[in-house]
Structures are given as structure tokens and as C-alpha cells.
Amino acid sequence: MRRVVVLALFCLPALAFADCEAQMPKWAKTLHPALTFDAGHSMCKVSPADASRTLAALTFVEEGDADGDATYGLEVLSADTASGAIKSHVYQSGAINSDAVQFRSLSLDTARYQLAPGVRAFGVRMDYTGSSRVNPYEATALNLYVEEGQKIRKVLNNLKIDESNGEWDGNCAGDFSASHRTLSIGKTANKGFATLVLDSKTVDSHSVAKGDDCDQKEDPPVLKKTELSYNGQQYDVPEELNFQ
User: Where are the domains of the chain?
Assistant: First the structure.
């Protein structure tokens, strides 16, 4: 009997995920019946901080053409896990553009972003990839949101949390750069919200053809720490870290 109970508990997250996936088209139709819901670029997840709440990020195609370029609206919501009833939400028109740099996927980030006592943010990560083979590019942009009653408010916009790029001859020779960034909660605060600390690690690499071989060399990693302060509405993001 004990084993059956344990197995049932392990199955709960999977069942909850399956249930919320079935809810996504219903939420989309309820909130935006005139828009085209894109289930393939949408995601939902039970909040680890409060299992009674389910978080979702829904995308809607606002514009598109035959070449695959598109503009998406982004709906971020919190719903009651048991009933599926929407508790709070926000819609951002034109939030995502997909053109030469293509929107690939998104995910929900439920790390412990405790911005203030009783205020825990959650994130939406959007993955992008470039269309050029000889100029490869990939990036992940992060938004953070907080719930405020029946509304959800974005407090961090399009932070480049990961980025890689390069230029090569399509065979071997080339130069590449990859940056990985982690976000943590700082010890100081401004206007009621904790400072965010961004730790970056950038590694540049170089490839050179030598006969039939392709020699690769990495430069020593460059480490950098950046603090993001809250201005009363959002966190200020330096221009070089903002995904446009």
C-alpha cells in the first residue's frame, strides 16, 4: 500500500502538466477568441512555490508572411490548478518578433526569484536562433513577472541571459563567442525590490585549418558581475544586455 501511495505522488507533476496542456486552448479561446493561438510555442507549469497555482505563457500569431516572418503576442497567466479558472493575466502585443533571428521556443522559469517579502517573481525564457550558417547566432531572452491581485506585471524585460555568435568559412576557420549568465538575488534593495545580480561567463574560441585537421583554441573565460536595480516599475537593463 505504501508503495502505491509513493508512486501516486511521483505521478502528480506529470498529471498536472498534462491537465494544464489541455487547458491552454481553453484559456486562449477565453482571453483572445479572435487571435490565432500557437500551441507549439506555448507552455504551462504548476508553480513549485504554490501547487494550487498553474502558470502559463501562451503565444498568438498577430502577423505572419509566406517567408516565415511573424509577430507574436504573449499572454502570461496564473490559473487555479484544480479548476483551471484564470486568476490573473497580462497580454503583451508584439512581444516576440521572428525574422532573420527566428523565435524557436519558450519555457517557464520558476527559480526562487524572491524580490521582496511575499513577492516571488517567475520568468518566461524565449529562445531564438539565427538563419545564417556562416554567421551562427543563438540567444535566450528572459522576462520576469510578479502577480498583483488580478493582474500580472512585467518587471524585467528581454534580458539576454544566454548568447552565442560567430563567423566562419563554413568549413573550419572562424571565430566564436559564447556567453552564459546566471541571475541571483542580491543583498541590497531599491524602491522595495531586491537588486538582481547577473554573473556572466564569456568564452571566445578560434578555429584554424591545418592540413586535414581543424584546430580549435579557447581564450581564458572572461567573468563579469552586473547589478540590476529596480526603478519602481522595472529593472534597468544595460543596452548591451537587452535583446531587441
Answer: 1-99, 106-144+157-244
